[in-house]
């Protein structure tokens, strides 16, 4: 076992999500959203460097030397666990973050997400985006959606990830997973190639650049169901982010293409529950004819109003979900206020937070 495996064992035993290794700090784990040091002894520069370099392949070391950061997946057989790892060079030296990837892919019900999310799996073509900040559970939600399709549909699913997190075994359908760096040069290169690989479903782990976004929209337009992620906090901001990636002279064309191809957005963030756990609060947009017109006409600022009045279709704003959580005493008012877009729903007075 590598030396870091012991620390990863402690992380898993305590139900943590992340392990942080950095010089002049003790190892730190994240449990239910909070950071906790493992002891008081601070790790030295040479120690963190050797600890992290020990688990890297020669190729990963070369990538790190060239770019000063590297992403990869790390598996510990003795712990029956996989981790997503990022090693980076910082002010104090080499640091690393390990994210525990659950072995079991949970269903939408087990994740306590609205069942209406599975409506997106019924389409044969179009673009579906799962968005949120880093660490908000986007990969977990997408894994659940892909597993549902894999279990219930005779479809060919291609995933493009950096790195591969959840490993899918083929069930009713066929799943092929590709990892950027190991199996393909880039998201865009793999996405372009996937169009010649007879896919029904394409998962793009991160739509991080103009070329990848343009290819994803094209794939969705040409008869494929495409799932992707963005680091945006709401449905309206997701649409704006996609359009604003493109040069001004292309944005009108992209609005038209996006209006015709996008099926919906699931925006999520993890909130702390009253029992100290974490749960996803979600905003859901289904793109109706009215929403398509708003996108085409550049009136995305009106999308929240459409969501607010679309509850019968399964749509909901993030604030509506937070309000429901407070009413059901799932989260505290303070937590809702922290994540709400409209803070007035959870007002503050001199005594603290009041729910009215």
Beta-strand content bin: 25-35%
CATH superfamily of the largest domain: P-loop containing nucleotide triphosphate hydrolases
**What order do the helices and strands follow?**
HEEEHHEEEEHEEHEHEHHEEHHHHEE
Give the radius of gyration.
21 Å
- CA-based shape: globular
* Strand runs, count: 15
- The residue fraction in helices comes out at 25-40%
What profile does the largest beta sheet have?
7 strands, mixed
How many helices in DSSP terms?
12
CATH topology of the largest domain: Rossmann fold
CATH architecture term of the largest domain: 3-Layer(aba) Sandwich
User: How far is the N terminus from the C terminus?
Assistant: 55 Å
Low-confidence stretches: none
CATH class wording of the largest domain: Alpha Beta
């Amino acid at each position: 076992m590598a030396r870091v495996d012991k620390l990863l064992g402690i992380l898993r035993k305590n139900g943590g999500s992340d392990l942080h290794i950095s010089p002049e700090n003790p190892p730190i784990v994240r449990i239910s959203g909070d950071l906790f040091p493992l002891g008081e002894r601070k790790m030295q520069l040479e120690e963190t460097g050797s600890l992290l370099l020990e688990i890297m392949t020669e190729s990963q070391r070369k990538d790190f030397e060239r770019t000063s950061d590297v992403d990869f997946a790390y598996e510990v057989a003795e712990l029956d666990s996989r981790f997503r790892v990022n090693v980076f060079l910082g002010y104090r030296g080499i640091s690393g973050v390990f994210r525990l990837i659950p072995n079991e892919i949970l269903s939408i019900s087990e994740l306590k997400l609205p069942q209406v999310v599975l409506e997106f799996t019924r389409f044969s073509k179009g673009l579906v985006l799962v968005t949120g900040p880093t660490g908000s559970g986007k990969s977990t939600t997408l894994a659940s959606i892909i597993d549902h399709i894999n279990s219930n549909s005779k479809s060919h699913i291609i995933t493009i990830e950096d790195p591969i997190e959840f490993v899918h075994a083929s069930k009713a359908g066929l799943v092929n997973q590709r990892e950027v760096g190991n199996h393909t040069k880039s998201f865009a290169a793999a996405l372009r190639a996937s169009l010649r690989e007879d896919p029904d479903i394409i998962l793009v782990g991160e739509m991080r650049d103009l070329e990848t976004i343009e290819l994803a929209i094209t794939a969705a337009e040409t008869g494929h169901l495409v799932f992707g992620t963005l680091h945006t906090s709401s449905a309206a901001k997701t649409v704006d982010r996609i359009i604003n990636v493109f040069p001004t002279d292309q944005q009108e064309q992209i609005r038209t293409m996006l209006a015709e191809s996008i099926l919906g957005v699931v925006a999520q963030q993890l909130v702390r529950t009253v029992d100290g756990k974490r749960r996803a609060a979600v905003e859901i947009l289904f793109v109706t004819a009215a929403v398509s017109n708003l996108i085409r006409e550049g009136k995305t600022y009106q999308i929240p109003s459409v969501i607010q009045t679309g509850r019968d279709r399964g749509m909901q704003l993030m604030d509506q979900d937070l309000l429901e959580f407070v009413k059901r005493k799932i989260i505290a008012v303070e937590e809702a206020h922290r994540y709400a877009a409209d803070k007035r729903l959870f007002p503050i007075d001199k005594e603290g937070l009041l729910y009215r």
